[in-house]
Structures are given as C-alpha cells and as structure tokens.
Amino acid sequence: xxxxxxxxxxxxxxxxxxxxxxxxxxxxxxxxxxxxxxxxxxxxxxxxxxxxxxxxxxxxxxxxxxxxxxxxxxxxxxxxxxxxxxxxxxxxxxxxxxxxxxxxxxxxxxxxxxxxxxxxxxxxxxxxxxxxxxxxxxxxxxxxxxxxxxxxxxxxxxxxxxxxxxxxxxxxxxxxxxxxxxxxxxxxxxxxxxxxxxxxxxxxxxxxxxxxxxxxxxxxxxxx
Amino acid sequence: xxxxxxxxxxxxxxxxxxxxxxxxxxxxxxxxxxxxxxxxxxxxxxxxxxxxxxxxxxxxxxxxxxxxxxxxxxxxxxxxxxxxxxxxxxxxxxxxxxxxxxxxxxxxxxxxxxxxxxxxxxxxxxxxxxxxxxxxxxxxxxxxxxxxxxxxxxxxxxxxxxxxxxxxxxxxxxxxxxxxxxxxxxxxxxxxxxxxxxxxxxxxxxxxxxxxxxxxxxxxxxxxxxxxxxxxxxxxxxxxxxxxx
Lengths: 224, 245
Known about the structure:
heterodimer, B: alpha/beta, 4-stranded antiparallel beta sheet, 10 strands
C-alpha cells in the first residue's frame, strides 16, 4: 500500500512540477473556459428569465470542453522522449500510473473550476457562495477525469489523438454531464440537498463504476 | 522450461522459443537464448531484425506471443514487476522529462523504484556520469549526449542486476559516443549482466562475451567466448543477413 501511495504521489508531483514550469495546460484550459463563459454571458442577458435554464449548460460546456483540452495533454507529455515507456518500466502496477495521472488531471481541472465558477456566478448575477454546487462540481469532475484519463491514454497512441479523444470520450460522459447539468440547475434555482440527491447518486454511481472499470482496463490500454 | 529451476542460479536470462507477432507480422519467430550472470551479450542485426522487440520482451514492456523467458529465474509473464525492479534499460529514447531538471527526473524515477537514501544515490550516479554541474538544469537544455548520460544515471539509480541497452549510442556524434562508452564502462563491469543491441560491429564485439545476429526475427548466428571469430565477423554478419560479400 505504501508503494501504491509513493508511486501515485511521485507521478502526481512530477505532473504538478512540469505544469508549474510550463503552464501549458493551465493557461490553455483556463483561457478557453473563461472565453466560453464570457461569450455566453454576452449572448444571454444576465438576469433574464432564460438564465436559469441555460446557465447550468453554459457552465458544464465550459468545463467539459476546457477539460478535454487538458486531458488531451495529459498523456501527450508522456509520449515525448518515450517517457511512457520509462513509466511502464518502473516496478509498479499499471493502475499506479493511472491513479497518478488521474490525480494530476483531477487537480488541474478543480483548480480551473475554482477560478471559473465564481467568475461565472458573478457574470450571471447568481449568489457566489454555493456549497452544494461545489460538491456537484467535485463529484462530476471525478467522473469526468476518471474516464478522460483512460481515454487520454488510449488516444495518445493514435495519430489523430486531438480528434480521437472527443469522439471516444464525449458519448461515455453523457450520463455524468446530464446529471451534473440537472443538479446544477436545481442548485441555481435554490434547490435543497433532497432535490439534488437523485442526480448526486447518479454521479456517484458513475464515478464508482468508471473508476473501477478504468483501473481494470488501463493495463490493456497502455500495453501495445 | 524443465531446466529453468536448476539454471536460474547460473543464468541471468533464458529464452525458450520466444516469439512476438504484431498482427500478421512476425517480429520474433521463436528464439532461444541463454546469458550467464555477469556476461555481456551483444545482439546484432539489420533494422527490423527484431532487436528492439527482444529488448521490449525482456523488459516486460510487451508480452510474448509464444515461448517463454526467465530473467534471474523469474518468468516475464508471471512476475513482471519483480523483473522490472532488477532491470535498468537504456534506449535511444531517454525516458526523461524535458521540463524537469536532471535532479527532479532522477528523484522521480528513484521514488518509482523505491530507492533508499535517494539524495545520496543521486549524487553518486550523477558524479559517475560526470554531470554534477548540470544537476539543476532542465533536461531540455542539455545536449543529446548529456541527455543520454542522464538516461544512464536514471537506469542505474536502483542498482539493477541486469542492464538492457537498446542501441544506446544512436544519434550521438563520435565524441559523445566515446564519452558514453567511458561513462557506461563502470556500470557494465563486475557482476552485472548486460544485453546490448547495436549496429556497430566493432564496438559490439569488443563489448561481448556472447554474440547473436538476428535476421528476420530468427537467430542467424550465435557464438560465445573463444568461438567468436572477431577477425572475420564482418563477413559472418554480411553472410547471415544475406548480403553478398
């Protein structure tokens, strides 16, 4: 177990250090998400009746497409100098590599969301302090990145990886996106924990199922 | 396989009918190999002969389509993790992260291999590859030769029993090749078993206790110790790979 945590943390910390130095993922993802939110803010007049209907979709469109930019890079960096082979030569189980990469992608995405969400709430004249929204974001992001990390590894071995990731990935994350949008809509309308519990359960079920499936199949995805 | 239990004390590497296919393409067509502990095996062969595939199979990076292989008595199918902890691999790719410094790269790999006294070990290996002054420089700023020396430091950080060198001097200028030979020398001497693939016949022969020429996935020539005819090896090589002499 100690080896598992050491390996996961080593990969996570390596990705953090690399990102701090290049700011490659953070900059592109953050700018993209910000642009989406700002453009939609101009398109839909804030405070209008339609805001409650479109705001959750705007938020999750921004997160999903920005997140995909980041996930595209997650394994691309491992392909430079064949570093993925270097990782695979290490005496750790393959799922340690998956968990390490997942931890990095999850953290990057949460940081971007922590910056974008308050800006989005202010731009759309919504209350800034929403703990329930925070929980939805964290849980949905876990599902999003657990599937995304797996497909990022898969598409990294293809020539057209920029195109392959969205094609493979978007259909799979439809359930978690729908649940996240619905739950976000309820929260923005002042819904209680009880109102969003069904959607939260769907997100949690998705997280558990895809985390387990990804751990099981990751070995076959990165080998050959 | 019947003799594997007995031989595991003597042999560092044993391969029995080791085969690998990619779709309909046969990269290795069932090869038999035995390398004694502490011996140096050089594998020659033209491009596409199966040298890199052999290294990938022995390093557990890919699974065989047929046959079996034991490293230090451990089956590559059954104990890949244990085998990887005994291996150091230097390839023409460095496996390094350009954005990280030399020390950060070594620290990362050291943690992945569970190296104890990591900081002291990093100082030792970086001094052996003569790059102390570049320890805190990003790998991306180093020359190709320097990167390859860092790759050697990375490969020996955990003091492996067996080293696999897959064309380690590819892409290096003559000066860098000489430098790398000097740097590699202490790591490939003593009890450590080394398998090296190369196109450089002179260097490979000079290095080897045992040589193998692969051609189209098969062992076309195999010799060890006194059997290696160094004087006419070029002719032997050309004949094995089907070139006219």
